Every structure is written in C-alpha cells, then in structure tokens.
Amino acid sequence: MNKFPGAWSNYPFFPSGVVIISGIEQGLFVVKRTSSPECTENENDTFLLKKKKKDETVKTCQWLGSNKKKKKICNKKVDFGNDVGPAYVVCPLTCDSCGPCYENVNAKFFTEMLGVDPQYQTCKSLADKDKSKIKKMCDKYNDSHKGYKPPKEVCPKTCKTC
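and the corresponding structure tokens:
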C-alpha cells in the first residue's frame, strides 16, 4: 500500500508545453501538453473596431491593451470585416478570451443564406431558446461565412461542446 500517493510537485511553465511531475514513490515524469492549442497574439495584429458602410476602422492589440475601454471593446465589438476579425478573436490574450470553452454572449454565428443575405445570430439569442431548439440549431448549422463560424464553435458552452 502506498503511503505517499499522488504528485507532490509539478512545473507546467515551459514554453514548449513540457510539464515536469514528481511523486515520492512514483518518481519523475516528463509529459507534454497536447490537448489544447496555445493562445497567442501579436501586438501588431489588427482587429475591427468600427465598420461604417465601406469604411473600416482597425486598431492593434497593443492599442487595445492600453485602452481604458478594453473590456467593452472585447465584449461588444464582435463584427468581422474584410480580412479582419473582432478584438476577442484577434487579441485573445488582451481580451482574456483564450480557451476552447470561451463564449462571448454578443458573438455572432452564421446560420444560413436567405437569398444573397447572410443570416447571423448571437450566443445570447441562442441561449434564450429552449433546450431542444438550441440542440437543433447547434446540430443543423455547420457552415462559416466571411469569418463568422457556426454556433458550435462560437457558442461552445451554450451548444455544450466543451
């Protein structure tokens, strides 16, 4: 019978994803994280701040990091532009939007085309539906359009995919 079961120490801070784990009776283990992608951003990456007709205002992650309205921008500005995404997608470290289970209630997902017009909904509008409707929508819509992804990817908590 083990008198000292389990890990007594660990060091998970290597940039490579290597984690050192030790136990008194078990010894030393060297493992590597592979289950989740790294969350990175470049301070010079640009995100869409405003969109008016054909004009787009873009800013950098560095600009966002020093802005007093950072939280509001990360949570409320959720549109995609021409080859540029919203702050919570482009600047995940600054917006604290890393991880497979991150969900922004204001984020928009693509549902379908109605003629030539793309249709979008928000995670909040999806969460407000009854459970059977949520499941149906999460299962039905799987396409992306101009940066807008399907509900399973945009609303993982609501769709219960994480």
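(Above: one complete record from the training split.) The first strand starts at residue 9 and ends at 11.
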